[in-house]
Amino acid sequence: MDKILIIDDDEDIRNLLKDYLEKEGYNIHVSKDGKEGIEVFKSFQPEIVLMDILMPNLDGYNTLSKLRKISNVPVIMITAKGQQYDKVLGFIKGCDDYLVKPFDLTELSFRIRAILRRTSNSKKVKDNKIHVNDLEIIAEEFTVIKGGQRLKLTKKEFKILNLLASNKGRVFSPKSIYESVWNEVYMDNDNSVLTHIRNLREKIGDTAKNSKYIKTIWGVGYSIEKDT
Predict the structure, then answer these.
(1) Helix, strand counts (H, E) of the chain
(2) Which 8-state DSSP code applies to residue 56?
(3) What is the mean pLDDT of the chain?
(4) Dist CA 13 CA 33 (whole Å)
(5) What does the pLDDT average to over 149-169?
(6) CA-to-CA distance for 119 and 23, rounded, in angstroms?
(7) pLDDT score for 122
(8) How far apart are CA 170 and CA 155, in angstroms?
(9) Distance in angstroms (rounded) separating the CA atoms of residues 89 and 24
């Protein structure tokens, strides 16, 4: 069931959209303003966002700008602001479609379906992303997301994490990690892997003693446990 987040300060509009789209078979969450909407988005992770522009606390344009820093989720602006300038600004900020109030619910439904069709291929790729507890690893984008935030990893840190996460349950020695990531012959007493693992753990919020991500197998190497 595709998930849709509705962000609009008008309670009547929120309820109208929620009731109609739930009957269309979607899973709906609603928020009354942009500030609340961003927080709901992080936990709900919808496939599409429907968003007003004129809202208190954080308007639609600024909400969209903040949203684009953490996600490329399709956004349809639904607003009374129907001037050409407003539409252009919406697309500049990163919206995928723009619908002026009052609008036809059937038209909205077709626009949503069209966007879902267009994004189906990319969604298939994202369905292949790897999850390690609350970490989301997207190999094609060299991206790791935690709590809705992109983590700033170096290329080698990412490759180490992706190597372990792609082979859950397998223990990798420092030598095998080095030769896989560096593509060089491993030299004894080289601490590069140890240093990168330590830095990686710090960035993802992990520790060697109480790890929920990268397990140290003492005297052998490192591993990420299989999903239970």
Answers:
(1) 9, 11
(2) S
(3) 89
(4) 13
(5) 92
(6) 22
(7) 53
(8) 22
(9) 30
